[in-house]
Write a structure and sequence with these properties.
The chain is α/β, with parallel strands linked by helices and 291 residues long. It has helices at 39-49, 64-69, 74-82, 86-97, 112-118, 120-123, 143-154, 214-220, 232-242, 260-272, 278-290; strands at 8-12, 33-34, 37-38, 54-59, 100-105, 128-131, 135-138, 157-163, 173-181, 184-192, 203-205, 208-211, 245-249, 253-256. The chain has a single domain (8-273), classed as Alpha-Beta Complex (Spore Coat Polysaccharide Biosynthesis Protein SpsA, Chain A), CATH 3.90.550. Helix 5 (112-118) crosses helix 8. The chain binds uridine 5'-triphosphate. Residues 12-20, 29, 58, 106, 109-112, 114-115, 132-134, 258 line the site of uridine 5'-triphosphate.
Length: 291
Amino acid sequence: MASIKVRKAVIPAAGLGTRFLPATKAIPKEMIPIVDIPMIQLIVEEAVRSGIQDIVLVTARHKGAIEDHFDFNYELEDTLDKKNKKDLAEISRSIGKSCNLISLRQKNPLGLGHAVLCAEPAIGNEPFAILLGDDLIDAKIPCTKQLIEVYERENASVVGVMDVPSPEVSKYGIVGGKMLNPKLMEVSHLVEKPAPSAAPSCFAIPGRYVLSSKIFQCLKETKPGKGGEIQLTDGLQLLAERERLLAYQFEGIRYDAGDRLGFIDATLAYALKRPELAPGVQELLKKHLKA
Ligand code: UTP
């Protein structure tokens, strides 16, 4: 049976962002910019470049700025037009035009699995991608596109994984199963933050998935785990018991922009990729390293 095309994506962005306090007291973590682009915009751009048409944003009470960012800002754009700053007006407008955004609220931060479940009314029976709102992946072929290709070829749910050094497995959800080729695994089980000695592999899940809608039923049956939260990893374990679940080692560099050092790493990497900024940033780095 041919697989159904993946047209929708969920971006969970309802978390409290406690690792980024005090910045996140009044500003959503996902709106913090990497140089001058809010991290959520980079995530939405990845989804759009992957062929996604509808983006379901799962937000929360204090996250209205995210919705505003993807809307038009008539006052700003009109003022820029009148001042003949058409290029800046177009930058602002193009964000509003970039995709069809559906915004839903997670009323309580009951975990990532619960946030994904909140998107069910907007996803229905279709397969869909998930992109975490603070995980950046810099790749020639967008990571989500790589996963969609696997989903559509294999007609099976797939999680994106990266190879991490053994001492770091305890920071991630880790997959275990049978290798089908050096980059593709048939997943039989998942372990959340295992000790290195208990990890079934070094394949870690950073924050990209393409899943069948069966995950919703699995999440409904998932009991709260660590910290009273409904974990997506636990829902994925149920999914792996019920249908084929694959793990694909994507090409690309991942930045955990929700962590302070990961954020600095991402900021430097993205700044150094911009020709108008790279020489200045290199000079600054030299200055600070000398000091
Ligand atoms: P994180 O644990 O990285 O985000 O969740 P957080 O909870 O916002 O941040 P810290 O740990 O307190 O600093 C990964 C992703 O899942 C979303 C977050 O917004 C983030 O994009 N999430 C998490 C939800 O949408 N709802 C939740 O209940 C929890």
